[in-house]
Amino acid sequence: MADSYTEVTSQNWFSRIGESIKGILFGIIVIPVTIVLLWWNEGRAVTTANSLKEGAAAMVHVAADKVDPANDKKLVHVTGDAKADGPVVDTVYGLSVPALRLVRTEVIYQWVENKKTEKKEKVGGSEETTTTYTYEKKWVDEPVKSSEFQHPEGHANTGDLIPEDANISAESVTLGAFAVPEAFVKQMGNPIKNAVTDADLAKLPADLKEGTKIQDGAFYIGQNPKEPKIGDVRVSFEIVKPGTFSILAAQIDETFEPYQAKAGDAIYFIEEGTVSGETMFKNAAAANTMITWLVRFFGFLFMAFGFMAIMRPLSVLGSVIPFIGNIIGMGTGLISFVLAGTISFLVIAIAWIFVRPLLGIAMLALAIGGFIYMRKLAAASKPATA
User: Fold this and answer.
1) Gap between the Cα atoms of 325 and 20, Å rounded
2) Among 162, 240, 258, 376, which residue carries the largest CB count within 10 Å?
3) Pairing of strands 255-257, 243-252
4) Residue among 352, 331, 345, 363 nearest 297 (CA)
């Protein structure tokens, strides 16, 4: 059976008008939500920046070989050798590995549906939609419901994951004289591949041993790894080895927990290797800046989509002649982006004007400039009167 299907549907002009009018509700909802999101993001960025500044001023550098009670509840920076008192044990697969933590990843071989849609406007305002469905076999993180495919015939999925993924920590991990809490251990290091062996295969529980093989250092549950079948499962493992780590957190007795800054954020950082506290704060500040700009960009983008949805009926009305509809669509799209940009800058400027007046005033000026440009653009688009 072919693994590609194409459907062609048509929608008349009146139906498109109705749908575009419904889209106005989407825009009315999305625009206020994105305004709230942008405002919240600026508040979050300020809170994080102030918390990091507070933390950097309060940080105390301590040695890993001795716990000083005088530093209790203080924000401490410590670098030392992280060790585990015993191996990490995966009770499901009977795997025991000398490491700080063990990450188990399972994938299953399934049919996957891909969808591609192309739309073409016709004279008279109707729209023809061509949808192509393609099907391919892939390794995926979770079973796929083939019953929800557009064309499930010949693409039935079977099988399931055994116990799913896991992030397992060693029971007792220390960094010098300090005990590292499990929540911290689960975030330590970048896992590296841990290849399973025939000895590990022999230790598998009886219900898993049958039908399980080793392929490229992973357990393969299926008949033939070279010719995977739908429902086959592959289980791989990664570990974080003992080594040098740097921790920045509150010292509580002989262990750690997040440090609650008065500015609002809880501070705790864990990095592999010898990393200074100053560098950890610098990395956190850079991450805060990146997150802030990403939220700004997507907030602006969704706001623009909201305005486009509100103005969509105009381009549909003009699509009786496709060329006219396209021109109107381009115009409303441009106006939508200018509006979104103006409002986004305005929200961000007002949020920042109380924290960094110069930056806030500069952004407010940009917002006003965008508004003036939009007004001129709108005026220029009006037809000249006799």
Assistant:
1) 13
2) 240
3) antiparallel
4) 345
